[in-house]
Amino acid sequence: MSTSRTATAALGVALGARVPALLWGAPGTGKSSVVRALADAQGWPCQVVIASIREPSDFAGLPVVAGDGVRFAPPSWARELAEAGRGVLFLDEISTAPPAVQAALLRVVLERTVGDLVLPADVVVVAAANPPELAADGWDLSAPLANRFCHLDWSVDATDIATGLAAGFPRPDAPRPGPAWEAGRTRARADVAAFLLLRPSLVSAPPTERSLAGRAWPSPRTWEMAATLLAAARGAGAHPDVLAALLIGCVGPGAGLELVTWLSDLDLPDPEALLADPASFELPERGDQVYAALTAVAAAVAARATPERWAAGWQVLGVAARTVPDVAALAARILVRCRPEGATAPPEAGLLLPLLIQAGIAGDEPGAG
Q1: Which of 35, 113, 288, 326 lies at 20 to 30 Å from 42 by C-alpha?
Q2: Percent of the chain with pLDDT over 90
């Protein structure tokens, strides 16, 4: 896929998952147009705010005396998005916003809060920026603000531009997560958690070079974003290039490429197949594969916990408990916390009970707090 098509598809997934995204590209390459087109394709209003010409009060709210106190009044664009109930807040030229404005944007991007107004959950923040060498009087993006976005590189393909000039530019076609994509979020979080247990030094790795702090880098916040986008990309059936762009856009090229490679090399059984036939589970050779497989099964149970599925999950964990009890106990934490009403502890749970009690997760039996 071309870079622009990959970025467009990745942006579509991010919009569907309600994850803030930031397009990096040269001026005049169509970043604003694709954002507006994607919003229009979903029937969403798109409010364009050029960050470089705004004051901090345009995002933190204008102080207004009200009775014995002060309230922070939101601007008109925020009120219009709130009234619509959904839409895209497009922050253009964000890299040319002065530091005080960037500081005011922190709550807007992360919490969708403008002054005293909290925007609806279906309002998505998208931003665009030019690389520092192409920005007019630009600043480096601050590390706290950069760490709130999924960063996507944007460039144009000569063939796409030539075809568009000759035959007209088509409406951007981007995959959207299906209505049930959030059901896969628990498994995606488990996959990311398994990777971080393997690579704990990547949990939080702020860049040492100031120039890199304004792009994607690993932190607990961005790993959570990566897990959300992993679930959304799977739910959208996104191309592997799109998934890679999303994960790298959250945690940076080093950690992102490691995660992409690790995910492609897992080769795990379908957790639903294991729940249907727990006896078919064969313990993988690698420890990270064992943990990933067990947490995937536990996550599948947590997503739809019934007494039968809960018992089947314990049977799968029981296979591992006899060989690698410590690993099985990590996944058992999920089962303990999602015990359905009326479920009784199966025999396999007893194999892990001492470890769970020692960790303070279970009382006299799994599920007891």
Answers
A1: 113
A2: 46
